[in-house]
Every structure is written in structure tokens, then in C-alpha cells.
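#dry-run=false #mode=assembly
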Amino acid sequence: MRKRALIPIFYIIFLMLPIYWLVAMSFKTTNDILAGFSLFPETVTLDNYRVIFTDPTWYWGYINSIIYVSLNTVISICVALPAAYAFSRYRFLGDKQLFFWLLTNRMAPAAVFALPFFQLYSSVGLFDTHLAVALAHCLFNIPLAVWILEGFMGGVPKELDETAYVDGYSFPRFFVTIFLPTIKAGVGVAAFFCFMFSWVELLLAKTLTAVAAKPIAATMTKTASSAGYELGLLAAAGTLTIIPGAIVIYFVRNYIAKGFALGRV
Amino acid sequence: MKTENQKAWFFVLPVLFLVAFNALVPIMTVVNYSVQETFGNNLFFWQGLDWFEQILRSDRFHAALGRQFLFTGMILAIEIPLGIIIALAMPRKGIWVSVCLVLMALPMLIPWNVVGAMWNIFALPKVGMLGYFMNDVLGVRYDMTQDPLAAWITIIVMDVWHWTSLVVLLCYAGLVSIPDAYYQAAKIDGASPWKVFRYIQLPKMKTVLTIAILLRFMDSFNIYTEPFVLTGGGPGNSTTLLSIDLVKIALGQFDLGPAAAMSLIYFAITLLVSWLFYTLMTKDDQK
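#status=ok
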């Protein structure tokens, strides 16, 4: 039985190596990095981080990303909740077709939509706003949120709803005070996924922004091309993009496995 | 049992409106482009289905599509079995569960272009850890900017690094839902580990595995950012996957018509394969 533990250990080491490498590089100067391979930084420098925290184009990248990701998570969850309830409790005309159509949007290659999205959001005057990115990410996050929430809601017995009506609860009051607390793990997991996919997506976020709402990941590509290879700076910026994700995972760690199964175990 | 209620549509309306705004308008724009020719200056000419025919017959499209299927096939062939093996070996109780889950989920929360950039530097000969290890410690000539094979291996390893955890977490969720009584019964019957896997664990993992295969298929088939940042489709065209080729045509050459036709074909293929998976997945739910 002891030997079995080696498999996850080796796997985690494999996962951590590139991340360790990135973090180690962020404490080196670009010259040190290019001078050759070394496992540990010989002289630890915080200059890369100092640049990021003092230069507005860098730190505004983070703020922009966090604004549109949060906005998207809130919008997605708010509209997905009633829809998921409808799918899990009622049969209605075209429900299966609608559910499948929603899922197809999860399958659309973002590369297909990049240019039309640019035109659409320019024509409604939302180009280069946080709202534009938040709304665009709804394309794949709402279907996912509906899917996850529907899975969790399906696990709640229908008797709960019926008892509440017999007890004289109105629907909104039942939904907010009884139903939501019952599926709060599902809401947490759905929010985690919306956060995750909005945070890691770049193609649409980059297409829909120019200056005012530019995401951090786009700031990085720009620096890489204009100032040659600022490897140390790039590594520091990359390291900082891992942190919000790590914090969010920590909060949902007990539900994460069930959440990835979309509540369907 | 679900009750029939047409008013449920009101609950779905906000979702319908938001998703339709994001999905229908752009897809109609694409359809519009796909049947026209443009010479700039916003002049468009009716072209009919010529672009579709041209794309479907072009060697370039066939090559990109072939590479795409090769990539997705290899990804599924590696990540699914590997994910199952790791999930089976994971601890079931105690503090290590949380540690494993959090560490394993970490690669999935890194922005995709950071993943690409990170592996790009990681694989650099002399400078990067992987490049240094391969060239200077093992003595294998390894340079992904020169050698197509090295580029392919790097892309595959990167994706395995990035997404295997998704399969692990899904399978793990399926495994922990198996009651202990099942294992005890198997023990009394003297079942071999293989039999336990085949008749207890695998059937319980079926739903989650289908979700894993579906998600991994969709995402690896639509992959763009990571390989684009890692190799830029090179060396030559050796790692130009479908979406990279599409963006090259649409934004690089600004051939909107062919690019739009290609988008639609691409989307149709994704839909078709996903639909097959979806039907398989929901077949048992209906019973």
C-alpha cells in the first residue's frame, strides 16, 4: 500500500517543477537567467516585483482582470440560478434542446468568435470596458454554471419544495431562505468555475480591450514583444497571476472534487 | 418526477437572452462573411458556397485538421488512463486529500498564455530547466524551435501537465462516492484488484469519465493560446493546429470569407463529435 502513494507524489512533483522554475526565475535578473542554468537564484532580487507594483500599466492589468472576472462571476451565477432551477424541476417545451444548445456554446472555439465579438461590442459602444469582457465570458460561463447548478439542485429532493409551499412560503422567500442555503456548496463550486475560466481566458479579453480595461495577461504579451525578452519581469508577472487562483481553490477545496464532477456523482 | 410547467421559460429567459446575444449575433456575422468576398473598403460580393468548397478541398485545411485530430487523440489517449491511475492511487481520507487536490488543481488556474510562456522558457536549451536537463544532462539534442518532434513532445507534455488533473479530480469524485460495503463484499468474495476495478470502480466512474472525455475533447480540440504562445505553430507549420491556422487566415491574411467558412466547418465538427459524446452520456440517465 505504501508503494501506491508514490504515484501521486511523482505526479505532484511533475506539476510543481515548472511552477517552481517560474517562481525561482521571478527572483532573478534577466541577465542572470540568460547567463545559464541554475536551480536556485544566486542573488535574490525583488526588482521584478518592484517594477510591477510601481508601474500603473502593470498593476492596473491586475485590477482590470479582477474587476471583469468578478463581474462575470456575479452575472453568471445570478442568471444561472433560476435557469438551473427550471431545468432541474420542470419539464417545458424545448427544455432538452435548449439545454443542449447552451452546452454547444461551451464548445465554440473562441478563435471563431474573436473578430465578430470585436465588431459586436464596438457597435454597441462597450469596447474597452470591463462590462464587455464580463458579458463576453458569459458565453461559456453561463452554460457551465447552469450545468453545475442543475447537477447540485437535482440532488435536492423535491419534497423540500413541496413542504415549503404547504408551510406557506412564497416562491422567492423559499428560494432565498431555504433552497439557496441547501445548495450553497454548488453555488460555491459554480462561482469557482466561472472565476477560473474567466481568469484564464485571454483571447476574447484581449480582443475586446485596448487600454482602459486591458487584462494582466495581455500586458504581459505586450511587454514580451516590445522590450525584447524581459524574462525576469515576465516570470514575476506570471507568478502573480497564480495567486488569485490559489486563494480561490483554497476556499472550495472540500467541494472541488464533487464540483469537477458537476455535482453528478 | 418533473412536473410539466411552461412558465419555467420565464426562469430561463435571462440566460437565453445573454447567451443568445453572445452566440447568435457573432455566429450570424460569421455566416454572413462565409458567403461573401471582400476586397476591403467594406465592399462585399456574393460568393455562395465557394469558400466552403475551397476549404474542404484544400490541402492546408486537411493538414491542419489531421494535426488537430492527432493532437486531440494523443491527449485523450494519455490523459484519460493516466488520470484514472493517479485517481486510484490517491489517499481517500485525511489531510493529504486536501493537499493533493489543491496542488493538482493549481495548473488549471494559470492563465493560458502564462502556461504557454512558462513552458516556452522552461524548454529553452541552456536556460530553461527542461532544456538544460535534456541537452546537458541526458545529452539528447532537444530544441523545439528547430525540431518538429521536440515541438510536438513539448506541446503534448504541456497539455498533460495542464489538464490531467481535471481527469484525476473527476475520477476521484466518482471513486469516493463508492460505499465501503462494496469493497468489503468484494473482499469476502476474494476478488482480485483487477476485478474490483473492472466491476466496481469502473462502472461507478462511468458518468464522470464521460464528462472528463467530453470536456477534454472540447477543450483540446479548441486549443489555441497555449500552443500559439509556446511554438507559434512552428517550426514551419508542424504544430499549426486548426485554431492557429484559422487565426492566421482571419487576422494575418485578413481573408474573412475563407476564415469564416473554415470557422463554421470547424464548429460543425466540434458539435458533431460532442453531440455523439452527449448522447452516449445521457443514454443511461433516461432509463
